[in-house]
Amino acid sequence: MSSFSFSKKERLLNPIEYVKLNRVGRREDTAHFKIVFAPNGLGISRLGITVGRRTGNSVVRNKVKRLIREFYRLHKAGFPQGCDILIAAKQGARHLDYRRVKEELGAFIQDKKFASSP
Fold first, then answer.
1. Of 14, 38, 34, 12, which Cα lies nearest the Cα of 25?
2. Which regions in the chain score pLDDT beneath 70?
């Protein structure tokens, strides 16, 4: 049984980790998200989320981040182990609700695009 928590060790917290992941990671795009991922050698998956100011004010940006975190928390078994994942919201993400986030990111996971990570 997998845990549905999202602990601190499962998060990308250091800005240097974001820069490193952007340099060496594999990029994939969906309609509302840019996803960058790379193996981390730690045996656990870590998630980083970025939402730029063009997406909206702080209320909107925080809502988008909450939706992404909730999707990851409930579907982390579908993500590969030992991988750093950065999900960056594009400008149109401001209009999404959880159902649409689940459809879009769920389809990405179902396509098994992580299988050929660098």
1. 38
2. 1-2, 112-118
